[in-house]
Amino acid sequence: MSFENLNLHPLILKAIVDSGYTEPTPIQEQAIPELLAGHDIMASAQTGTGKTAAFMLPALHRLATPAKVHSRGPRVLVLTPTRELALQVSEAAAKYGKHLPRVKVVSILGGMPYPLQNKLLSQPVDILVATPGRLIDHIQRGRIDFSRLEMMVLDEADRMLDMGFIDDVERIAAATPATRQTLLFSATLDSAIDKVAARLLKTPKRIQIAAQQARLDNIEQRLHYVDDLSHKNRLLDHLLRDMALKQAIVFTATKRDADTLADNLSAQGHEAAALHGDMSQRDRTRTLTKLRHGGLRVLVATDVAARGIDVAGITHVINFDLPKFAEDYVHRIGRTGRAGAAGIAVSFASGKDGVNLKKIERFTGQQIASHVVPGLEPRFKPRPGAGGASRGTPNVAHKRSRTWSNDTSGRNANSANGNRDNSRGRSFDSDNRGNSFRGNSNPSPYARTK
Ligand code: AMP
Questions:
Q1: Which of 75, 148, 172, 259 can bridge 69 by disulfide, Cβ–Cβ 3.0-4.6 Å?
Q2: 109-146 b/e with 16+ CB inside 10 Å = b?
């Protein structure tokens, strides 16, 4: 399938060619025809699948035809859980809409000054990208006219649900015309999301893009077993001294850890800065701009802050702390390998991380190969059968034990007879696995102290 077959407006196709995309991703291939036909959709697609273009291209296609209703309000509304994702969506709108005669994109985000937003909203708007809380404020002050709204997109609806924004989302939806087309994107489509969809969407087409179809095939994943915090710090310092590392995002579990680690790294001579939700919007934007322009080599971030970061120069993602949720792992590692480049995702796992690691591997359908840096070997050793060792490549010093592939046969080859559950189950559940992987019931002596 090529983009030409999707019947998008020629000026949008031109922008796609400029972006260097040669063919639609699976979510684009499935969603765009449904959207052009006017259907509502609910799609399970994570970051990295090309989901932004999947809704933005049809949205722009609508804008290529004059509005039927005359007003200055937005014709397309995109709601996102975070400011970073909103900015990302706005950039995508500008990028794909750059050849269309006039597409006015406005972002309304929490943490930004009201006077500027009031001014932006007093002028004609085509695409409004917003975080729910701040948008509600403006709606209540009567500053938004939704009379010509044609399309509403709920991006990362699961995250909006998790963050408690869904009531706001429903109130916003109630302020828009019932005739609107509604799109819901979520990492997973579970019963909670189904309930939201039942209230806000009209007989939606359901599109399921498996986690494995996410564009992670160009990201090499590595696992380093670690003993304790000091071991993590030494390994991190070693990894950051690799010349092949151009820019990296290092993920920590908490905002405080992000600050501390960024300070420590700066003290060690690395160009590092923190990014997390406690920082003012101005500081966050300044840090991100610095990262984009190459003025920052290491960004130490928490999950919330990292959503939507799309910086082509990120060669490495390092999970200093593993994420609690497997979905976040995919979000995190998707920060590297952008726009078809190769990327490396390194995860540190201590004795207490076994359960999390297993959840991540089950979610992605792929095992993470373990690596060892000579001289920085862990004292703590998972028993045979763990992680990369289960594939007969125990502790290979910086050597890939296999290639990632988007290809199903390749994936199955990595698991026993294609039975992934059996193969992964062995990794962390078998009795010879070592009790230190048994989670909270048996805390590891090497567990990190906070
Ligand atoms: P998203 O899932 O929307 O965050 O997009 C992930 C990345 O894929 C972004 O860097 C996009 O620029 C890129 N992308 C989107 N669509 C395509 C495509 N059809 N071909 C290649 N890259 C794409």
A1: 148
A2: bebbeeeebeebbeeebbbbbbbbebbbebbeeebbeb
Average pLDDT over residues 220-235: 95
| Atom of ligand 1 lying closest to residue 49 CA | 2
Above 90 in pLDDT, residue 423?
Answer: no
82 Cα–ligand 1 center, Å: 19
**For residue 170, what are its two tokens?**
């429903």
β-strands 76-79, 314-319 pairing: unpaired
- 129 forms bridges with which residues in the sheet? 78, 107
- pLDDT (average), residues 189-211: 89
Residue closest via CA to ligand 1's atom 15 equals 50
Pocket probe for ligand 1: among 18, 44, 52, 156, the residue whose CB has the most ligand atoms within 8 Å is 52
Residue identifier of the C-alpha nearest atom 5 of ligand 1: 50
Mean pLDDT of the chain: 82
CB 254, CB 450: distance < 8 Å: yes
- pLDDT over 90 at 303, yes or no: no
- Tell which atom from ligand 1 comes closest to the C-alpha of 45: 2
Residue nearest to atom 19 of ligand 1 (CA): 24
The DSSP annotation for 357-400 comes to HHHHHHHHT-PPEEB--TT---SS-PPTTSGGGGGT-TTBTT--
102 secondary structure, DSSP code: -
Percent of the chain with pLDDT over 90: 60
Residues touching ligand 1 (Cβ under 6 Å) are 21, 24-25, 28, 47-53, 310, 338-340
Q: What is the dihedral of CA 282, 284, 290, 295, to 10 degrees?
A: 130
pTM above 0.85, yes or no: no
Q: Best mutation site among 6, 12, 25, 84 for ligand 1, i.e. most ligand atoms within 8 A of its Cβ?
A: 25
Residue 130 pLDDT level (bands cut at 50, 70, 90): very high
